[in-house]
Structures are given as C-alpha cells and as structure tokens.
Amino acid sequence: MTVVGDILQPTHLLFVLVVALLVLGPKRLPEVGRSLGKGLRDFKSALGGEEQAPHAEVLNQTSAESTKTSSESAEHFG
Predict the structure, then answer these.
(1) The model's pTM
(2) CB 49 within 8 A of CB 61
C-alpha cells in the first residue's frame, strides 16, 4: 500500500476525529470545520484564478448587515 493509502484508512480517520472532538469540544468542532472548508475553497479558487467568489461573498455580507440594521432601527422606533 502507498503512504497516502496508509494515512487514509477508516480507523485512522476515526481516531483523528475523536482526538479533534476531545481537543476542540463539541461546540467548536463545527465552527473549525466550516472555517477549514472555507479556507480550502478560497485556496482552490485562488489557484484556479477565480476572483469573483470572494467579492460576491463580501457583497452578500454587506447587504445582510444593512438589512439587519434597518430592521433593528425599525424595532427601536416602532
């Protein structure tokens, strides 16, 4: 078997997940997984030369924040 095949055995992956759960805890593990996935997506898009995805994400965050701010101010004055 190759080196990569030895590393990716199901028992090894299960062991790594259990250690990560013990170290990070059940509350932080999903957060770390999301940030790791986002980092990998950003890395792949940077390698592929896709510049549009991060810009669109920033626009979506900005519009969501402005919607939240306007609804909060309506509640405050309402």
Answers:
(1) 0.46
(2) no
Cβ count near 49 (within 10 Å):
6
Count CB atoms within 10 A of the CB of residue 26: 8
Amino acid type, 36: L
pLDDT digits (tens, 9 = 90+) for 24-57: 998 999 999 999 999 999 999 998 876 554 555 5
Distance between CA 71 and CA 65 in Å, rounded?
Answer: 10
Measure the N-to-C terminal CA separation of the chain; round to a whole number of Å. Answer: 68
Please give the sequence-ordered ranges of beta strands (E in DSSP) within the chain, or none if there are none: none
